[in-house]
Amino acid sequence: MSVIIDGKELAKKIRGNLKIECKELKSKGIKSKLAVIMVGKDPASKVYVRNKSRACEDVGIEYEEHLLDDKTTQKQLIDLIKQLNEDKTVNGILLQSPIPSNLDISEAFRTIIPEKDVDGFNPVNVGKLVLNQDTFVSCTPYGIMKMFEEYNIDLTGKNVVILGRSNIVGKPLIHCCLNRNATVTTCHSKTQNIEQITSKADVLISAIGKAHFVTEDIVKEGAVIIDVGINRLDNGEITGDVDFENVKEKASYITPVPGGVGPMTIAMLMNNVIKATKRQNGMID
To answer: Fewer CB atoms inside 10 Å of the end CB: C or N, the chain?
Structure first.
C-alpha cells in the first residue's frame, strides 16, 4: 500500500507560514499585492482565478483583478501589463491562460518584468531555472518539488519520467528534476513505446490531460507517482491521468486528484508573491 501525498494539507501548512510572513511585512509597513489578468470567459479559468483570490485573502495578500473581454487587442493587453509593471504597489503579475487565440501569449509573458513574474514564464526566469539560479519557478513544478522535500523523496540518481512537454509544467519540470540530480526522460505525443519507458521510472510524473492513462501495468513496482492531470468525466467527476485505485497498490508514493498537486500550485503562487514583495523591498538579494 502506498503513501498518499496530501497536497491539500501541505498547501495549508505552507499558506499558514506565508500568513505569518505577510503579517510581519505589514508590521514593517510593507503590503503585498498580486494583480491577475484574465482575458475572455473560459469557465475553468474563472474557477482558477476565484481560487487564487481566496488564497490571497487567506494569506493576507492584496488582490487586484483585471477582467478583459474577448475583443481585447494585443496592444490593450500589453499596455495593461506595462502599466502594472510600473505600478509600485503591485508586486506580482499573473496572466491567466488560456487567452483568446488571436492574442500572442508569448509576447505577453515577455512583457511582464522578471521581478514581478510570479508565474515564472518570462524567458529570463526560465533561463535562470535552466542555469539552476535563484528565480521564480512555474508554480506547478515548484509545488511538486516541495512535495518531494516534505516527504523526503530524494531524486538524486533516480530515473524520472515526465509525461508531457508543455511550457507550463513539462518543460520546467525537466530542469527542476535535473537540478535535483535526477536522470530525466520526457515522453510526449510523438514518443514511441511509452509503456517501456514508464515501466522503468523510479518517479513518474503525468501531465498530459488524459483520464486514467497511467495504469498499473505500465508502472514500476515501488515507483513514486505524481498526477498533474485534471480531467472531467462524462458523469461530472474530476479525475487525474492516473488510475488511482489500482496504481496506488503498486506505488510507494502517489498523489490523489483532487487534493494533490492542485492545492500546491496555488500555495506556491502565494509563496512567489511574498518572495517578490521581499525582493522588491530589498529583503532578499
So the answer is: C
